[in-house]
Design brief:
The protein has one domain: Rossmann fold. The chain has 299 residues and is an alpha/beta fold. 48% of the residues lie in helices and 8% in strands.
Length: 299
């Protein structure tokens, strides 16, 4: 029986790198990111689903679904729009290959651990974690991230790191796998062996050569900020925050993630947070708390 895997992590945590590696394994197959779960399955859990006609029109115009093959896309569009049918159609899409594990990557899944558990109770979830200071620095350099303040990104990372490190083990038990980006780039073989063993698979040396194949999962409009997807591992891609990130933001992250950083082995610098940035941080953090309450499963 094939298994389902959902790979996530706050954007710029290294999920694309791990996706490329795992996709190179003979028993794991990812599909391009379509955000299908959030767009079409989640509404049923929030009591916001639409009619079959509205669904087919929206799905037919969905640019993300164009990343799939015509056959895969039409199978989703032609599915009846009820909870059982649409969740089964998505599962069939992911498992429609001769592999043991059908997989999907989406950074949006950090928001929906309880929802994934509700729909696919036996799934595996990999949560990618990276030094929060490097994540925030990386996010503000992207085309999409530069539109938000640095404190917004600090608050988002802080909120979902705390939330998911608590919810992940509670909801998924042994099917929850936490991966540190720094461990992956330092000793990829050791980390991949651990990940694969957790899912009942064995290591294959070819997955370390993922970059030689070229990526089939990265859409054209994503390449601007995923330019390293088809390159070898950047082993020195850590601790850039020390020279480039606002020290007051470093202080906010270290103050609010003190316990988590200690548990994960991230050494703190002792930087001091700035008052105004701290006030903005707590305002945004509260907004994420409210967002989670609004997105709780209904019924």
């Amino acid at each position: 029986m094939a298994k389902l895997l959902f790979l996530t992590g706050v954007g710029r945590s290294g999920t694309t790198l791990l996706q490329q590696m795992l996709h190179a394994h003979s028993e794991i197959a990812f599909k391009p990111e379509t955000h299908f779960f959030k767009s079409y399955i989640l509404p049923f859990l929030l009591a916001k689903s639409h009619s079959d006609e509205v669904y087919k029109r929206a799905a037919g115009q969905d640019k993300y679904l164009e990343r799939l093959t015509d056959e895969e896309r039409l199978a989703l569009i032609n599915s009846n729009y009820n909870f059982n049918a649409i969740s089964s159609s998505f599962q069939n899409l992911l498992m429609n290959s001769a592999t043991s594990i059908g997989a999907d990557k989406d950074t949006e899944y950090v928001r929906y651990f309880p929802h994934l558990k509700k729909v696919y109770p036996e799934c595996y979830v990999i949560n990618m974690i990276r030094d929060p200071r490097d994540v925030v620095l990386s996010r503000i350099k992207t085309p999409w991230g530069s539109k938000r303040s640095v404190t917004f990104h600090a608050a988002e990372y802080t909120y979902y790191l705390k939330k998911n490190r608590k919810e992940g083990p509670e909801l998924f038990g042994d099917h929850y796998i936490e991966v540190k980006y720094e461990d992956l780039i330092t000793d990829p073989q050791k980390e991949l062996i651990h990940i694969l063993n957790r899912m009942g698979l064995t290591f294959e040396s070819n997955i370390l050569d993922y970059s030689k194949k070229g990526s089939t999962l990265i859409a054209e409009d994503e390449k601007a900020w995923k330019d390293n997807a088809d390159k070898p591992i950047l082993k020195g891609n850590a601790n850039k925050w020390k020279d480039e990130l606002d020290k007051s933001v470093v202080g906010i992250l270290e103050n609010n993630l003190s316990l988590e950083m200690e548990e994960l082995g991230y050494e703190k610098s002792g930087a001091r947070p700035a008052l105004l940035k701290s006030l903005e941080f707590y305002g945004v953090y509260s907004a994420f708390q409210l967002k989670s309450r609004k997105e709780r499963i209904r019924g």
